Amino acid sequence: MNEFLKISGDLSNWSVYRKSVIICDVTEMFINRAFQPGTRTIDQMRQAARSCKQNIVEGVSDSTISAEMCIKLVGVARGSARELAEDYADYLRQHKHEIWCKDDARTVSVRNFSRTHNDPREYVDKCEVRTNETVANIMLTLIHQMDAMLAKVLKTLEAQFLAEGGIKEAMSRARRQQRGFQRRFCNLCSVCNVCDLCGLCGLCGARHRHIRHINYIRHISHTNYIRHISHTNYIRHISHIRYISHIRYISHIPRLDTGKQIAANSVGL
Description:
single chain, elongated, 9 helices, mainly alpha
């Protein structure tokens, strides 16, 4: 089978997606309780939480046709998560609440709990009976976890792209295999992996130029340029010599007064 499309499956069991759902649902509960209705911060935090979750879904779905779009959207999701973390940190600082450090016993307890619990309803129920300060610190812990997870996802996407390429390369490989393309590389170049006989690349099967051939063309072009410059200088040199000779020749011709010359011509001299 020469398949090149990677259809994304169900995201409900993916830990990164489930973490984003928890953050989105708890944030909705938090902003409705902690801020006055109509506050601009409510819309900003809601949009940041939603953007994180939605861009993860769209990025994974778009990876079927574009690795570049997937990487961009996952990066946008990570940026939205960091924006949301900044909003929670601003709330704690502006209300003079304590921000848990990463080694705090409460932070470690939240991290351990999140390893085995991924139900958004359970988190919402537990956060409803806790203070805003505790909820904000719990969200900071979860967002920092998801930030690290998204960073690992980006590195995985990078390694996958370097190993397999994008959709265009996959389509070209599948099409060549469908036509019965045979790799007949009998003398691959050690520099650029291009066959000396057929000119096909040993890595992707496309037709490329040898690096040494390109360098040779550059060398010939440079040599021709030098020759052109030398020829131009030679022409200038010859022209200069001719000009000097002409000046010297003119300078040796005796000059006669116009009246004397007319008189000389009249007497036959």
